[in-house]
Amino acid sequence: MNKMNKEILIIGILIGIIIATVIGIQLYTSSLHASTSESFNKAPELQGISGYINSEPVKLGDLKGKVVLVDFWTYTCINCIRTLPYLNSWYEKYSGDGLVIIGVHTPEFEFEKNYDNVLSAVKKYNIKYTVVQDNEYKTWNAYQNKFWPTKYIVDIDGNIRYNHIGEGSYEETENVIKELLTERAERLKLKMKEKNTSKPEAVVDVDFRKIGTPEIYLGHKFARVDLGNEEGFRPEQTVEYKLPTTIVPNRVYLEGTWKNNLDHMELVSDKGKIVLFYSAKDVNIVVGRNSSLGIFLDDQPVGEARGNDVINDKVLVRENRLYNIVSDQGYKSRLVEIDVEGKGFQIYTFTFG
Question: Which end of the chain, C or N, has fewer beta carbons within 10 A?
Fold first, then answer.
């Protein structure tokens, strides 16, 4: 075989290899897409629902042909609260095109199981979509859910096509909604309606990188860190707490007589005090029972850094919910002191923004 023939043979072999490789890639890619489309998980049915708001009893199985957003939330969770304007906006914009939103309210605390409490929160946050009560965590467990909030988007065939944990990714989530609604319109030969493209304003502008204090639970069952007081948590006991001379950051300190309950601390004396050195911009507390709270920052009345629920440097607690007590101009490390008047006052958590 001469030199020219050898070169032609080699070129032919190389071309053959390239063609085979391209065909192989195409076959692999098509099989990958096929397996992906077939691997969507079916959305579990709603289970153990004890109450319905804004709706008659509903099942996912009755919503085939709709795009359904299932949102696990609870009304005292600040992370959930900050997502509600987006959910309300999506419902307003897309419900006419086949979007259904179901807020699955799975309570973190015992008082959140109360229907009237949830109804009050739904009205407060102007929620128009369906909210169901998952008090026994049966739907939560069916989805193997772990966090508040978590969103699952279900296509018209009942398949989960997207999920997102926590806040953020609003543009990405809305794009999935639009894509699945467009897919629905094409399959059902429907026309999409014109949309208002304005975006909702976030409740709070949060930079999570600048928050130096994590959520703090005050019930002994859920607490991730002990109290700052040397007495610490004493499960199911009533303890007289005294403030030490040194305050360590990110630890809650108590003064007065408090009962240690599963998910909260309850003031037994007529007056008490709560002290925390934190690093954040906003401070929220989940509390309950009729009481008056004086709010101080760095040993001074809270003043211009007052939260939305503070009037004249005080908070009047009249219902079990989340109260915003500090809304500062920037992220800072500060000492907050809450002077409590009202036997029976209950505190569940501190959360931050």
Answer: N
Question: Residues 142-173: pLDDT tens digits?
Answer: 999 999 999 999 999 999 999 999 999 999 99
- Using CA atoms, how far residue 290 sits from 161, 228, 315, in Å, is 45, 26, 10
Domain with CATH 2.60.120.260 in the chain: 209-352
Record the tokens describing residue 268, joined without a space.
Answer: 């037994």
From-to residues of CATH 3.40.30.10 in the chain: 51-188
Q: Give the Cα-Cα-Cα angle 236, 239, 240 (nearest 5 degrees).
A: 165
CA–CA distance from 330 to each of 205, 206, 211, 279, 327 (Å)? Answer: 11, 10, 11, 10, 9
Burial of 109 (0-12, 13-18, 19+ CB in 10 A): buried
- CATH architecture of the domain with residue range 51-188: 3-Layer(aba) Sandwich (3.40)
- Give, in words, the CATH class of 209-352: mainly beta
With cut-offs at 50, 70 and 90, classify the pLDDT of residue 268.
very high
Q: Tokens representing 127?
A: 């929620």
Average pLDDT over residues 299-324: 97
What's the predicted TM-score (pTM) here?
Answer: 0.86
Residues 113-143 have pLDDT tens digits of 999 999 999 999 999 999 999 999 999 999 9
